[in-house]
Amino acid sequence: MKYLIILGDGMADYRCADLGDKTPLQYAAKPSMDFMASRGSMGLVRTVAPGLPPGSDVANLSVMGYDPALFYTGRAPLEAVSMGVALGENDVAFRCNLVTLSGGGQYEEKSMIDYSAGEIKSARAAVLVKDLAAYLKSKDMKFYPGISYRHLMVWRGGPADTVLTPPHDISGRAVGDYLPRGGGSDALLAVMRESSLFLQDHPLNSPANGGRPANSVWFWGQGRAPSIPAFREKYSLSGAVISAVDLIKGIGKCAGMDVIEVEGATGNIHTNFAGKANAAVEAFRKGADLVYLHIEAPDEAGHQGDTGLKVKAIEEIDRQVLGPLLSGMEEFGRFRLMLLPDHPTPLAVMTHTSDPVPFVIYDSGRPADGGGGTYCEEDASGGTFIEQGHELMEYFTKGY
């Protein structure tokens, strides 16, 4: 038996007036997802337990079968693992976004124009991060360039309990109410202010270069080094992870899974959808028992409040990933495929929520359950409900 999980980050949503009072999943043309719904089993799963932040870190840990209450230490340390940044016992890793803030006025009076600085290209971003680090000359804070707007800062001896807000939670809002609070907040805010002064005059942020300026850093998602049991030991299956984002790759590495790089995988709508599907098939050919294929595009569209882009992302997943894999997996004999989001990223709020998400499981060796319906939030609500998200993996691999 081969097991495949396709994770459409942030796919779930609320009904939208501009979609005829349908959710993006209800509105999108997605014949392969609806085929799974008609032949498989649907339900809802709560991937974010009460009291935990509704982030991709918590939600994907749950889907991968790890209880966040036991294993979650923060988002940034998982990304550090993916980036090959070793964390010492007293190190605290922070996600360091390059963002676009409004111009003029005091720092606290500025607004969060774009949490991704226009989805800045990685090469340009790397120069900005390296030049900023050279300018700051900090002995205790080290900066590491990542992909696009997603970077890392490691603070030797820093605090892990600072109150920080993800920048995608405050799009369009004045940042004054969301600045760092608690331990270490003064030092972090000082760096953010300094970055604004330095980056606004950087040649790569000149209007002549086009796009939005990356005129500040923004810290969030901090934590210390995680410790996660090996996936093979926990589920007696060899696993592989395919993703464009360091968070998911970091979870995979912590769990001892193979992390597969795909050329052209970007974490947005311009990603190499077909390349990810092909990589999944190759992973199975090389002996993987389970592949976790993560696609970020719907989440990015949700954060941007772009209805058409979110519908397109869902349709591209169906057309370029799910459809080809439903047929491509047949070469391995019997297989089981699960499709779901990690969390909703509703267009109306442009950030994550902790609502339960719809999942659908298709087993090529089982007759249709006869439930019918299409793959969407409403139809899935009539199926199985899994309260503890980390129990979904056991249900998928053994209990279904």
- For this structure, the quaternary state is single chain
Strand order of the largest sheet: 9-8-10-1-11-12-2-13
Count of the separate structural domains: 2
SS-based class: alpha/beta
Q: Which sheet architecture does the biggest sheet show?
A: 8 strands, mixed
Look at the structure and give the CATH class of the largest domain. Answer: Alpha Beta
Helix content: 25-40%
User: What letter string, H or E per element, gives the SSE order?
Assistant: EHHEHHHEEHEEHEHEHEHEHHEEHEH
Give the CATH topology of the largest domain.
Answer: Alkaline Phosphatase, subunit A
End-to-end gap? 13 Å
The CATH homologous superfamily of the largest domain:
Alkaline Phosphatase, subunit A
Structure annotation, total helices: 14
Give an account of the 3D structure.
The protein has 400 residues and is an alpha/beta fold. It folds into two domains: 2-72 and 228-399, Alkaline Phosphatase, subunit A, CATH 3.40.720; 82-223, no CATH class. The protein is 33% helix and 19% strand. The protein contains 14 helices and 13 strands. The protein has helices at residues 24-27, 31-39, 56-63, 68-71, 75-83, 122-136, 185-199, 231-235, 246-254, 273-285, 297-304, 307-328, 377-380, 392-399; strands at 2-8, 41-45, 91-101, 112-114, 141-147, 150-156, 216-223, 239-242, 258-260, 290-295, 335-340, 357-363, 384-386. Strands 9-8-10-1-11-12-2-13 form an eight-stranded mixed beta sheet, sandwiched between helices. Helix 6 crosses helix 7 (185-199) and helix 11 (297-304) packs antiparallel against helix 12. The longest helix is centred in the last third of the chain and has 22 residues, at 307-328. The two termini are 13 Å apart. The mean pLDDT is 96.
